[in-house]
Amino acid sequence: MTEQPRLAEQNASVLLPEPFARWFGEKGWSPRVHQLELLAKAEAGQSVLLIAPTGAGKTLAGFLPSLTELARRSRRKPGEAHRGIHTLYISPLKALAVDIERNLGKPVEEIGLPVTIETRTGDTPSHKRQRQKLVPPDILLTTPEQLALLIASNDARRFFEDLRYVVLDELHSLVTSKRGHLLALGLARLRAFVPGLQTIGLSATVAEPDELRRWLVAQNRPIDAKSSEMAGLITVAGGAKPDISILDSRERVPWSGHSARYAIPEIYEAIRKHRTTLLFVNTRSQAELLFQELWRANEDALPIALHHGSLDVGQRRRVEKAMADNALRAIVATSTLDLGIDWGDVDLVVHVGAPKGASRLAQRIGRANHRMDEPSKAILIPANRFEVLECRAALDANYLGAQDTTPLIKGALDVLSQHVLGVACGGPFDADLLFEEVRGAAPYAALERETFGRVIDFVATGGYALKNYERYARIRRNKDGLWRISHPSVAQQYRLNVGTIVEMPELNVRYVRQGRGMAGRGGPVLGKIEEYFAETLRPGDNFLFAGKVLRFEGIRENECVVSNGAGANIIVPSYAGGKFPLSTYLAEQVRAMLADSDRWKALPEQVADWLRLQKEKSVLPKRGDLLVETFPRGNRNYMIAYPFEGRLAHQTLGMLLTRRLERAHARPLGFVATDYSLAVWALDDMAALFKAKKPSLAALFDEDMLGDDLEAWLNDSWMLKRTFRTCAVIAGLIEKRYPGQEKSGRQVTVSADLIYDVLRSHEPDHILLQATRTDASAGLLDVSRLGEMLSRVRGRIVHKHLDQISPLAVPVMLEIGKESVNGGANDTLLMEAADLVEEAMGRS
Amino acid sequence: MNFSLSRATLIAEADLIGIAGERAVCDRRGVLYFPDLRLLAVSDLHLEKGSSFAKRGALIPPYDTGATLLRLQAVIADYQPRIVVSLGDSFHDGGGAERMHSSFRERLEAMMAGRDWFWVAGNHDPEAPADLPGDTVRELAIGSLVFRHEPSKQRVEGEIAGHLHPCARIVQRGRSVRRRCFAGDGGRMIMPAFGAYTGSLNVLDRAYAGLFRLETLVAYMLGAERIFAISGSMLRPG
Fold first, then answer.
1. Which of A385, A400, A415 is the last residue of a domain?
2. Chain B partners within 8 Å of A761 (Cβ)
3. Does A460 fall in a domain?
4. What's the confidence (pLDDT) of residue A780?
5. Is residue A608 part of a domain?
6. Contact: A763, B61; criterion CB under 8 Å
7. What is the pLDDT of residue A336?
8. Which residue, of A400, A432, A453, is where some domain finishes?
9. How many domains does chain B have?
10. Domain shared by A666 and A638, yes or no
């Protein structure tokens, strides 16, 4: 026996109440060192961050301080008032809360603890919510949105007065988004209610644990890394190294595309050889396709299920239940199952498509085999040749334990606006005190008082320079100096709009019997589909959804009516969300691999051949170089650049380059971007322009494009409009759309686009436009990444003019026509349509 | 004279269309001009829509009235019409004119000065706007034309209406373009909404059923530089 377990046993007897020690004994287990360490720190009054790989008993560790305290607590005497919530557990996923209820309920029952555990999510029926307010459970499992709602009710202070612990699960994934901002503000509010509140953060390995440690506790000192407050830290080293391989296919790996159809027989074979296989893909469309293909190959009729965020919730619950009962052999899933849900006996993870980020890959592989000491088994299936490189790089990164977690960003102002209104709904507040409270939340630690004042002004009257709305103020400052909501209806409105997840407008997919057309009576709802996709369909079109081929009948109010479909031309819906860009770290790895022919040995032969051919016909760029190829094809001239900076940054670059080429009279016609490269095509010979230095290639790629060009383009960009809509909904300027409300149609509501246009021309410095620009540069446009790239390649651009297309250019060239080029030139399309009419009428 | 010169340069013979025998220009900014009558028609201004929403708790920017008036001012300056017909829903609600900021009221009155101005009653503003000059009418007949807010159920040659906020959508090279439009079949014309916060409804929506002779329906879609006349057969719903 080693020293450590004995120590742990000694500690255990001191720290663990008798029933816990007995339970561990009965199970033949002993508490893990980190579980006891966490308990000790918590009992000493500290907040703690626990970083551990999946399977390390993180959940039990997180709840141990609560459970032991609850076990020691005296029972409530009859007639005594009900006690409030003791522990609040917050997870990013509803499904996770439901899962924890199940997993925690078991030991609680076996130990015989007098502890009540309940969930509260968007799916919780209202009678249960009301009952929870009167008789709160000891442990409440919930989501950030529900916390925001609880805080905004006028009995919040009483509801939370007995709160001791807040357990935050999957903290690493919560903190990187606006939901994290909302949660941080909610936590600050809870601290104001209960000053001695302790937090326990559970996280997978992250690059910067200190960021999370700060996030967990109040930041009351001025921001300064050395003196800022941090939670205690417990780190558990990773378990056995996962056994990961890249599929070395017998088949030919395609140039482009994301379906990995070529590998279906091999994937099916792997499913047959394992107990339960989890198949991850990056987008919902890929999930639908893969599921369809697998069933086509499923000669043994193995139970294979589909799970993604657009499916009906009942359908998803059934799949989760079947998975927990080990009734499935395979599940095709997207990120809805991405986080720490550990159900069933998964013994293989298959990742189809490139993993896009090394951390993401590590997370997903954690799904297999939740016993920490056994290696997890995973197979990566690259869908195309560039993905082979990416998978290889990700694999190397995983063994190296590399990290590429998204850096934390400053707290968003739209979220703060929502929170301020929520606070007002809960009761009157003093602006200065609330400001201090908000600064205690790590994302807002650097917030300035002046900005906070503008936020309050925005919440009250819209914060416009034209003071026209004083009489319609939503909150008002009374004589006592406190801000209050001006009318109870404000609180009602707030409750309907809480949250930071703004979906694209969606339609319910309603099934009707075939042959009944639009007149068919409503069958079940299969899930939701994005409105813009439904608008491209014509009655009679067949598309793939929920694993079925459906025939589009038409749109009725907020529903997309479908029946059973069939046929050869099946369309796969695309979803705006869920496309992750290639992470910076992985991009760097891929570039390094391209430049180093020694590393090609690790690649499948056909891929290595492809790179050798590129070297022969064109150039392979050195690690820090940017390769730009030009060649004519058909009656057009092409320019291909290979920055490897991810699709978002490439799209932004494409927009800016075409603007510049237009000014240089190169007559550009379009561009298309992938994660790896970018193709621009024009009528004129761009190589000749570069040669004549009109402009030179270096000037074309100069960083100054991020100045005026970016500004000018941004203002008209659909991306900025989309971002504005999100900000405006979160900030409470426009309402979320709910099913049934669309009936009133386009005439009655005011679209976010129109508001954007008016606001931009009349008050460009408005706080909401400021928030929009900040968001867009960080998110959709990846401007910072583009900027870093442009400065990195300065003086290192390698131009190669070719007679014909190069091997490396094939993948992006195949994307042309598949991908729509957004922005600009819409009038050109109108002109074409108008000309067509003229032509047909014989007038031209 | 200065303005007649500017009018002459504005109207090219090719841009003229016929409505029940009258010559008209569909201006890409969303107004209809009859050069022979020197009449300018504009529809669905929805002034004070912003404050109407604010009243109900949605504090959308209060600049819509200013933006709409500025654009109206520009077309009036270009055409210098003798008669202006505002085709109903000029204000978003009955209290709109009252709520209007004094600076906007002054701007509007300056525009109205020296010309005949008709407020056609709409469903949003059935009464005359408070304290503003101009004549409020249910409908207005001039020559072979009749101006009313809501298009009538039965066919009326020469009817100019608003109310429906038409837009049209085409799909070209796999991409969809949706724009506000004038919708006409040579006999009747439904005008696009002019207000800054007005949305639009596709001309193929069932709300338009029976209003047009489909074989001669043309959507005059508003472009950045010009109008695009698209025949009904090319249009898509949604």
1. A400
2. 63, 67
3. no
4. 62
5. no
6. yes
7. 60
8. A400
9. 1
10. yes
Considering only the beta carbons, identify the residue of B53, B62, B238 that sits closest to A535: B238
> Is A755 strand, coil or helix?
helix
Asked if residue B169 lies in contact with residue B175, where contact means CB atoms within 8 angstroms, the answer is: no
Co-location of A176 and A39 in the same domain: yes
- How far apart are the C-alpha atoms of A600 and A611, rounded to whole Å? 8
Residues A587, A354: Cα–Cα separation, whole Å:
12
Band of pLDDT at residue A261, cut at 50, 70 and 90: confident
Kindly state whether residues A221 and A249 are assigned to the same domain.
no
Q: Are residues A349 and A383 in the same domain?
A: yes
Number of structural domains found in chain A: 4
Q: Which tokens hold the place of A19?
A: 């029933």
Nearest chain B residue to A829, by CA: B172
Contact present, A834 and B230 (Cβ < 8 Å): yes
pTM for the whole thing? 0.79
Same domain, yes or no: A301 and A229: no
Of A282, A264, A281, A280, the closest CA to residue A272 belongs to A264
CA distance A103 to A60: 9
Q: Are residues A84 and A171 in the same domain?
A: yes
Q: ω into residue A136 within 30 of 0, thus cis?
A: no
pLDDT digits (tens, 9 = 90+) for A621-680: 998 899 999 999 888 899 999 998 887 788 888 888 988 898 888 888 878 888 889 999
Proportion of chain A above pLDDT 90, given as a percent: 37
Among A235-244, A622-631, A790-799, B16-25, the least confident range: A235-244
Minimum-distance CB partner of B66 among A469, A762, A831:
A762
* Full residue range of the structural domain in which residue A107 is found: 3-235
- Residue by residue, DSSP assigns A423-446 as HHHHS-B-HHHHHHHHHTSGGGTT
Which residue of A lies nearest to B56 if distances are taken between CA atoms? A472
Q: How far apart are CA A740 and CA A726, in angstroms?
A: 20
CATH number at residue A58: 3.40.50.300
CATH of the domain at B68: 3.60.21
- DSSP-assigned letters across all residues of A104-117: HHHHHHHHT----E
- Which value does ipTM take for this structure? 0.89
